[in-house]
């Protein structure tokens, strides 16, 4: 691979908040790979730490299939939280195996990614600040929502130990009235001292670790996605500023040459964006597929719990709503929203070219502009399973499919 320049704070486009990347060490990870071609210990700590912390939980849930009498209510409830560990593994591995592409994609957060004339620098800077507000807001909402989930689950645990424990084969039922954080089963007397306290501490560690990493990696991927959208919008703005003085264009050959040269720079930037879009799509495809797949599964589980599960306690209902809205609907919605924004911004380039002063130029300029319009006709977006386009229409299909599946399963369980 060819080494690339390190990204510093002064290199980042205006208005983009990357403090979470700096504080978490993820920017250092990207820069180390860009300059040396080697990954530092950050991602290794994330992967090994996740494996060590979540392995006991995953093993216990596997053993529970042999030890616990399950019905559809309890079965779906117990497998709810282990999906977070699976999500973390997928997101870390997507970054691990796509590190070369991911480090190259971070060129999109640089100010010099596009060739912007000096006379447009002030306007483009203002445009960057305006467009990056959405990305910053979504990232802040993610971390705030994460913190609220952690505090609510830790200080107000709502999963009944008796509900999980009293279906264990060969053991008498107990009534302890105790609650714990996660929905997992363990092969110990969960309501007794010191097992209850140890389980509480262990599940607190699992929650803090998984919630933090899920939010960090989601914001990292989503922010880069929105940067691609911002660059498309910026290129469209530059195209609209291609103004031609018809009298000067006919008389001054140097002026004519400079205008055509500027159009060629725009064409090169557009081709560059298309290359980066294809690379981002290939890296994000397994990530989006996994996010949508787990999102549908968890939403179905949530619907089942509301329809036929044990949700008489308003506190449990609130926490289920809180977790589902972030862990599934929020993340899926943001990927669909970001993909739709890119689709819209890329197709708007046609209007931007048409709004320029191409009609005041010669045939050579018009053919070059027409080439760009033809390239911009095909909308670009994210995909799932390589070929399925992801946009806001996808979100509607997911909601409809979730409702149909949950209604069918609830009828089967009656």
Can you walk me through this structure?
By secondary structure, the chain is mainly alpha-helical. Helices cover 73% and strands 2% of the residues. The chain has 14 helices and 4 strands. A two-stranded antiparallel sheet has the order 1-2. A two-stranded antiparallel ribbon has the order 3-4. It is elongated. The model has no long low-confidence stretch (mean pLDDT 84). It is a multi-pass membrane protein.
Helix content: over 70%
Taken as a percent bin, the fraction of beta residues is under 5%
Which structural category do the helix and sheet elements fall into?
Answer: mainly alpha
Biggest β-sheet strands, sense, barrel: 2 strands, antiparallel
Number of helices: 14
Overall pLDDT score = 84
Count of extended strands = 4
- The side-by-side strand order for the widest beta sheet comes to 1-2
Assign an overall shape.
Answer: elongated
Sequence stretches where pLDDT stays below 50 over 5 or more residues:
none
Q: What is the CA–CA distance across the termini?
A: 59 Å
Radius of gyration: 26 Å
Q: Give the quaternary arrangement of the chains.
A: single chain
């Amino acid at each position: 691979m060819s080494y690339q320049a390190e990204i510093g704070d002064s290199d980042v486009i205006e208005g983009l908040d990357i403090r979470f990347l700096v504080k978490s060490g993820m920017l250092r990870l990207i820069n180390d790979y860009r300059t040396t071609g080697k990954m530092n210990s950050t991602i290794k700590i994330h992967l090994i730490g996740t494996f060590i912390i979540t392995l006991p939980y995953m093993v216990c849930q596997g053993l529970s299939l042999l030890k616990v009498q399950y019905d559809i209510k309890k079965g779906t409830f117990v497998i709810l939280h282990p999906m977070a560990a699976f999500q973390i593994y997928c997101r870390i591995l997507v970054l691990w195996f796509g590190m070369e592409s991911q480090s190259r994609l971070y060129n999109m957060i640089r100010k010099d990614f596009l060739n912007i004339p000096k006379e447009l620098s002030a306007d483009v800077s203002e445009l960057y600040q305006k467009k990056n507000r959405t990305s910053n807001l979504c990232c802040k909402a993610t971390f705030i929502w994460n913190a609220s989930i952690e505090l609510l689950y830790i200080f107000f645990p709502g999963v009944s130990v008796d509900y999980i424990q009293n279906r264990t084969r060969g053991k008498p039922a107990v009534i302890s009235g105790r609650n714990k954080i996660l929905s997992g089963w363990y092969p110990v007397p969960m309501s007794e001292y010191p097992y209850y306290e140890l389980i509480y501490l262990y599940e607190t560690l699992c929650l803090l670790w998984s919630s933090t990493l899920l939010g960090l990696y989601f914001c990292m991927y989503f922010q880069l996605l929105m940067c691609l959208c911002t660059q498309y919008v910026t290129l469209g703005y530059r195209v609209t500023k291609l103004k031609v003085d018809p009298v000067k264009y006919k008389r001054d050959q140097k002026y004519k040459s400079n205008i055509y040269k500027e159009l060629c720079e725009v064409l090169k930037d557009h081709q560059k964006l298309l290359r980066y879009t294809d690379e981002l799509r290939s890296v994000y495809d397994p990530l989006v597929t996994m996010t949508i797949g787990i999102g549908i599964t968890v939403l179905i589980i949530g619907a089942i719990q509301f329809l036929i599960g044990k949700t008489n306690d308003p506190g449990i209902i609130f926490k289920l709503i809180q977790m589902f809205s972030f862990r599934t609907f929020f993340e899926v919605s943001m990927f669909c929203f970001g993909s739709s924004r890119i689709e819209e911004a890329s197709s708007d380039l046609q209007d931007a070219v048409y709004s320029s002063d191409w009609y005041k130029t010669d045939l050579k300029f018009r053919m070059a502009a027409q080439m760009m319009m033809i390239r911009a006709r095909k909308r670009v977006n994210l995909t799932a399973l390589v070929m399925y386009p992801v946009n806001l229409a996808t979100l509607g299909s997911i909601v409809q499919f979730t409702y149909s599946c949950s209604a069918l399963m609830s009828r089967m369980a009656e």
